[in-house]
């Protein structure tokens, strides 16, 4: 079915996971390349994954020439960069977590707003989109009212206002609506399976081409909440490329965003991107984290944090997490029905 998509799907990349991110609080200044998390006052997609601090909003700086100042009191994020770029270059991004009331069914659904900041020459530009785990229209949007400001020729210029963020979540642009139609999400669960399992396709309905598959598996965790399943210390998050045409530069940026670009095992992926049918697996066995790629496996202490961030920050993660949460919510009802029927 069509579903609101993120940049991940529109550009057919595989989102990975954030490991070892920094946390921001109050007012703070940042410079240099890095990824940072800060508090969401309106909550996180899966609260138990975010911990007590609700630090699930994200700020990224892509190069040493970019600086940012975050002021949570005035809800302002200000970017500065004085370098001239020969071609349009992404220099940073902002990701805000929120929620909205689905018009069909009335459920409160997690929503994410993502803005990419770029520079061409000395000019700033911004592109933005929203992710949601279900295809619907939303009202009663709750999201932190941040504005994004850039320093342009010595003066401040507002690139995004809280009103624009809200509008993107409630009334997507024509481009965004067309992208939604072209993105297909297939639920692969059969015969009562509880593990979240989806395939992402691009194109119209039956003419769509599958580009990625994602699965979350926790043995013996059927019907459990997502965080409880992970806390057992035995789980896997598997991402498979079903196409060999995922842009290499998109994969490279995702590896940066999610803290995996320095993993020695993933250097071939960093250099050439995904080959068709290749799999990247994050997981834990008896509480010990690991990363697996190209038939090899290495210990990875940050696997748990990486998976938690992936499930909250990315479009595919959001859908996987939503599936798992819905399955856990339905489990007691199904058990009660089975008991009533004498099974």
Describe this structure in words.
Helices cover 25% and strands 38% of the residues. The strands form 3 sheets. Strands 1, 3, 4, 7, 8, 9 and 10 form a 7-stranded mixed beta sheet that branches. Strands 13-14-15-16-17-18-19 form a 7-stranded antiparallel beta sheet. Strands 2-5-6-11-12 form a 5-stranded mixed beta sheet. It is built from 9 helices and 19 strands. The two termini are 33 Å apart. The N terminus is likely disordered. The protein is α+β, with helices and mostly antiparallel strands and 343 residues long. It has 2 domains: 162 residues; 160 residues, Chalcone isomerase, CATH 3.50.70.
Q: What structural category do the secondary elements indicate?
A: alpha+beta
Number of domains: 2
| DSSP helical segment count | 9
Give the SSE order as H and E letters: HEEEHEEEEEEEEEHHEEEHEHHEEEHH
Largest sheet: 7 strands, mixed
Question: What is the CA-atom radius of gyration, in angstroms?
Answer: 20 Å
Estimate the global geometry from the Cα principal axes: globular
Q: Kindly state the number of beta strands.
A: 19
Instruction: State the separation between the terminal residues, measured CA to CA.
Output: 33 Å
Low-confidence stretches: 1-21, 331-340
Give the rounded overall mean pLDDT: 82
Helix percentage: 10-25%
């Amino acid at each position: 079915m069509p579903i609101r998509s993120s940049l991940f799907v529109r550009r057919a990349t595989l989102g990975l996971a954030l490991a070892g991110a920094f946390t921001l609080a109050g007012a703070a200044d940042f410079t240099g390349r890095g990824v940072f998390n800060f508090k969401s006052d309106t909550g996180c997609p899966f609260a138990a994954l975010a911990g007590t601090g609700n630090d699930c909003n994200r700020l990224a700086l892509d190069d040493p020439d970019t600086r940012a100042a975050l002021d949570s009191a005035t809800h302002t994020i200000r970017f500065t960069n004085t370098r001239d770029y020969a071609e349009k270059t992404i220099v940073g991004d902002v990701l805000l977590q929120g929620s909205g009331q689905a018009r069909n069914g009335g459920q409160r659904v997690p929503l994410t707003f993502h803005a990419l900041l770029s520079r061409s020459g000395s000019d700033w530009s911004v592109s933005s989109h929203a992710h949601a785990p279900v295809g619907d229209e939303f009202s009663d949007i709750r999201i932190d009212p941040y504005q994004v400001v850039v320093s342009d020729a010595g003066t401040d210029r507002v690139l995004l206002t809280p009103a624009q963020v809200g509008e993107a979540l409630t009334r997507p642009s024509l481009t965004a609506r067309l992208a939604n139609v072209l993105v297909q999400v297939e639920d692969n669960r059969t015969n009562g399976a509880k593990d979240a399992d989806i395939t992402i396709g691009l194109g119209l309905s039956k003419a769509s081409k599958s580009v990625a598959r994602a699965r979350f598996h926790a043995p013996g965790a059927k019907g459990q909440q997502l965080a409880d399943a992970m806390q057992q210390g035995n789980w896997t998050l598997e991402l498979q490329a079903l196409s060999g045409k995922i842009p290499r530069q998109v994969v490279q940026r995702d590896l940066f965003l999610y803290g995996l670009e320095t993993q020695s095992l993933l250097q071939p992926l960093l250099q050439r991107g995904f080959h068709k049918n290749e799999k990247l697996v994050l997981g834990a066995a008896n509480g010990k984290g690991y990363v697996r790629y190209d038939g090899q496996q290495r210990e990875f202490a940050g696997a748990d944090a990486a998976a938690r961030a992936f499930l909250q920050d990315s479009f595919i993660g959001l859908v996987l997490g939503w599936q798992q949460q819905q399955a856990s919510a339905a489990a007691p009802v199904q058990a009660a029905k089975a008991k009533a029927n004498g099974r």
